[in-house]
From TrEMBL, chain B:
This is Cbb3-type cytochrome c oxidase subunit I. Pfam families: COX1. It comes from Neobacillus paridis. InterPro entries: Cyt_c_oxase-like_su1_dom, Cyt_c_oxase-like_su1_sf, Cyt_C_Oxase_1. It comes from the Bacteria. Keywords: Copper, Electron transport, Heme, Iron, Membrane, Metal-binding, Respiratory chain, Transmembrane, Transmembrane helix, Transport. Belongs to the heme-copper respiratory oxidase family. The chain crosses the membrane at residues 12-35, 56-76, 96-121, 133-156, 183-209, 221-249, 269-292, 304-325, 340-362, 374-398, 410-434, 446-468, 488-510, 585-604, 610-627.
Amino acid sequence: MNKWIQTAKLSLLAFLGTALLSGCDRSKFIVLDPRGPVGKQEYNLIILSVILCAIIIIPVIGIFTYIVLKYRDKPNNKAPYQPEWDDNKFLEIIWWGIPIIIVAILGVFTAKTTMNLTKPPVKDVDPIVVQVTSLDWKWMFTYPDKKIATVNYAEIPAGVPVQFILTSDAPMNSFWVPQLGGQEYTMPGMSMGLWLQADKVGEYFGSGANFTGKGFAHMQFRVKAVKQEEFNKWAKQVQKDSPVLTKAGYKKLSKPSLEKELSFSSYPIGLFEDIVNKNGGIYYDHMNHMGDHTTMSDMNMKK
Amino acid sequence: MDNSHFFVTGDPMIYGADVSIILVSLAIIIYLTYFKKWGWLWREWITTVDHKKIGIMYLLSSLLMLFRGGVDAVLMRIQLAVPNSHFLASEHYNEIFTTHGTIMILFMAMPFMFALFNMVVPLQIGARDVAYPFLNAVSFWLFFLGAMLLNISFVIGGSPNAGWLSYAPLSENDFSPGPGQNFWIWGIQISGIGSLMTGINFVVTILKMRTPTMRLRDMPLFSWSVLASSIAILGVFPIFTATLAMLTIDRLLGGHFFTMTGGGNPMMWVNLIWMWGHPEVYIVVLPAFGVFSEIVATFSKKRIFGYASMVFSMIAISIVSYYTWVHHFFTMGAGANVNIVFAICTMIIAIPTGVKVFNWLFTMYRGRIRITQPMLWFMAFVPCFLVGGATGVMLAAAPADYQYHNSYFLIAHFHQVLIGGVVFGYLAGMYYWFPKIFGIKLNERLGKWAFWTWQIGFYVCFMPQYALGFMGMTRRMYTYNSTMGWDMGWAPLNMISTVGAFLMGIGFIFQVWQILYSIKHGERDVTGDAWDGRTLEWSIPSPPPVYNFAILPVVKGRDAWWYQKQEMQKGSYQKEAVKYEPIHMPNNSGIPFLMAVCFFIAGFGFTFEWWWMGIAGLIGVFITLFARSFQYNTDHFISVEEIERTENALRNHGSIHRTAN
Ligand code: HEM
Ligand SMILES: [Cu+2]
């Protein structure tokens, strides 16, 4: 029996070893490899929380092991035995106190980061707006400044804060580009703001994170960060070469289906606002649902 | 609605299930008929109001559901073991994770918990039954038939596939037409009503039915945990019922609570379901804490450390858990201030939870630790739950949660607390109280095999999932690597995780084997006190007589039985003369079962929108209620002679000299 347990333990170690090896390549851990200020702040909070938790659990597991080894019920065990000892105010204050302090520290940093993320990551660069609509089962991006639209991929200028404005013309999904930052829900009838920014040029994996039915697993998209000039060039190219997204075209696009990457040189005016409104947005004052209190009319003015 | 596909067709696995369901049902019917057991089944089980028997039925059903949920889990892991797998189609996978989650929480964890409530609480507080034995039977049958209603969706009508919490608007008619989603609603609605009644029952039982000399401050911690959990049930199950009723109105009557277009709001669904859902996870974990408190004291031969702090922390947890629900959707954009408040409330919950761990450790400190089967599970629980709690705190940091939410990191977290905390806790409880309820000790050797396969399986299955979360893998994907050439390197870890799931499955098989083997060959416990216990349940024979205590025990403080044993060992101990009195007991009744059957008929009818059937079922429910209110012959007395006969028989059986008081 014991030999078996030994073997089992060894194979467990072997497994964990493989797991670690397969994970050695840090670039695969995209959440831990942020490429923009939002992702970096979240990463810092992750690291801080790991450290704070480790401060508690490592000693506790140590004490636990020690106690279990020392106080076994063996006839020749000389360790003290005090069956009636059940109270010690000092010890209790310590173990109420330490977690309270740890939670306080983590709480302060959590609050700070939460506030920070509601603002554009850098102040001195003009942000751009990209509207995101989750559909069954694809992503549509519309660029109100450039009047172009794409499906399942988005280009953004590196070093520029991007305000993603999110909605859905399908069940609720969640827009997640791990290397740029955390996710936010896309909801029908709502429009919500999410600040993200890529510091460097590169291609980033994005996916829908909230389950939406049959084709959900296929809702990956690509976010390509390029230099500002290239971004402008790309937009021009799309305006020139790509087909138009008509009302009928959108209707077809919004039906349940899977799509490849697509580009459109233009889209019906007010498409995004119409999507929000037709899904019930008319009942709401959007003030509260925009991450940074951009209102619908602000958005319209920008155009 | 299109009912043309009443029977689910087209999938070989489902035909397999059809065949096995028919075979098993036939086998059961033939067995019962051949051995003339129908009467026995009806008299001894279906109509019983005895809390011990109800507990046993809960235990059996929850193990059955653990099997069903486990098969779901293994199927999902097979599908994900390799990329681009074609083992399951998308919709089939979606159905399986939906039923897996629903069954594991509502039809495995909850009934396992109620099994422990029923098997232990009255014995621990020196009561002869629960406060409302009839209601207790109603609760059980509502749970059981609710669970069956959800389970038949597999072969009739089609399973739900919108996730275990079925977020609107996905769960609305537009996106989930057909009976599947209705099965989900009615299955958990019916059993949820049962859960609420159990909550009421145990609050009253604990507050009013303790043996008169037991003060609340002397009550064993398991009973305290049941009180805390039951109070939380009273707080949140009404929300659950109302929320499901609102979805029913949307789906069946064309309401618009959760559809934006009619002026409703799906965010309200998300809020309401988590107002129930978060406390629910604490409802199931609190009794596990209670189990561990009993086990660690017994097997350290020592008083529990920091009793007051233990009680306080349980009450604190059950109260604070009402104020954390938003942490399940930080990413819904409620705004920075809301997120901060709920993040901090969530972290606060970790404090009393951590304190409990310290108190358990210091209960063992300067004790004498016996590593028995229940204790093994406790020792596995400590590190596992510490890590699970720590990842919970990591999730509670709202901005960091933006990166974990809906990813495999989250999946790993909640399986670690639910398996490491709840499942390990309940299994420990089962090992601990099995000898009490059945008079049989569970085989050690098989138990160790089960234990180690479970443990290794658990870590092999779920540790890689934390890593997968960091690699950007989201939950509820039926396949990966199949679109657009994204290879995120998820394959190896998924394979490892699947191996772990199989190991846990093997662990479960060992346990079933262990139970069956022990029933046949296991060591019989004739002492009534299999573990040298401390609390009242160990002062009576195993299994206990119907009335539990021939004479209500006198309690002089905490760990009453432990100190009474010490006194009994002193030479000067004088056994008091016992004088029995007739015992007042409830009568069996078939009404709870019939009422639940009517609920089932109603649920089935509404599921298919066959209004005539739904309404007929509800009328049946009212008829049973009506019939009950005209039942006058609801109780009886057990005569002194009969008590004497029973007690003498039990006593001649037992070796240690037990006193009645
Ligand atoms: C130490 C205390 C704990 C903390 C701080 C904590 C924190 C959290 C947070 C913040 C989430 C939401 C994460 C997300 O959706 O992004 C979560 C999810 C969850 N937790 Fe915990 N948790 C704790 C303990 C527990 C316990 C004891 C249980 C159950 C016994 C539990 C079960 C769950 C479940 C089932 C989910 C996710 C359900 C779903 O999304 O389907 N947690 N936890
Ligand atoms: Cu929660």
